[in-house]
Amino acid sequence: MELSEKSLYNLFLLASSGAALASKADWPLISRYFNGAADMAGANLKQAPSDDSDKVVLEKLIVKIERAAKDKGRQEAVKRSIGRFYDFGARLVADYGKDSYARVISIFDNDYPLALKHINSPPLVIFVAGAKFDPRSDNFAVVGTRAPSAYSEAICGRITPELVHAGYNIVSGMALGIDSCAHSCALNNNGSTFAVLATGFDVIYPGQNRRLYGQILRHGAIITEYMPGEGPQKQNFIYRNRIITGLSCATLVCGAGFKSGALISANYAFEQSREVFAITGDGYRADLKGCHELIKKNIAKLVLNGADILNDIRREKSIKISKSSGAARPERIVKKCGGRDEATGLLGFERYEKEPLSDEEKKVILMIEELSVNCDAPASLESLSERAAGDIKVSRLLSIISGLELKGAITALPGKRYEING
User: Fold this and answer.
1) What is the distance, to the nearest Å, from the Cα of residue 266 to the centroid of all Cα atoms in its chain?
2) What's the CA gap between 89 and 129, in Å, rounded?
3) Is residue 360 domain-shared with residue 239, that is, in the same domain?
4) Are residues 358 and 334 in the same domain?
5) Residue range 320-339: average pLDDT?
């Protein structure tokens, strides 16, 4: 379906606003108050908020969208990105044929994946490129370390084809290591695969995966919530993990260090009430320490081969979404696992109160808290830099902030703003 110039602009504006993450709006609330993307972009509500909690979320959502709409720099960025969207679409057809094309899909559209709608903070808009995008495909996420041992890579190479032959589309993040292994295994076994990027879909990152990127365009799809032309930013790699697991009925962690992005994916899957599986091996292997922690905390089930997974899950059962809330509840994991002890919660490093912070980290946490209260808004990097001047160098401040993100102590929001978790 061809979109009008105004409709396309509205979708790009929503994508650029960062409203989904900042407001934590879920699909039940969105569908209750908006008829479509145009209404959301224009802040036209179907009805007045029914309760205070809805009102708070709607205010955050609308404020973010209105700020984006009034920001001259954002308007120009949207226009440039639309131009890149058209250019990239034309190159796709020229290089890969008419079956490979680019599209932009809003959360209101029928071809927006249903499972993705029902996660916390679903992307309002996704950009998709490739020949084999099917919003109704049975998806299975395979994630892991960027520096796997030969053992972890071999296990990935053994289990992923079994999932493909069982009819699953493989979803991963196109990073080096296990992600690349999972995508390649799917392609080499005549399967399809989705790569979820933390950049615009026309930006190949890492560059070493240029050939793999082209193969995925031919035999799968590239998916992202970021506008064409957007380059890699550290926090975006964390946020995109919720999409990898949100698209999928289950996630396999095929190798992960104790502080690995793959563990963030596992925690997202756990929160989304999706099954989590992890491989195991010798206790001294650094790239399996995170997997062992997932298994010890009953977040993940131990698997040795594809049969362990396929015997545990039933493909004919669709993902059950709570009708009372768009966010799937972690408690349901225990019910689905049948007979397992109650899960002990998210990994310790994802919950900063469980892991001691250094004095510098405590100081930055206090700064974020003070600035957020004084400004009645998430603390910006600029204000933090000014507040820390004389005590902490900017380069050191950035390092501390990154560490706090990985520990789950803070969340980075669009516009280089930060809020405390918990």
Assistant:
1) 11
2) 8
3) no
4) no
5) 34
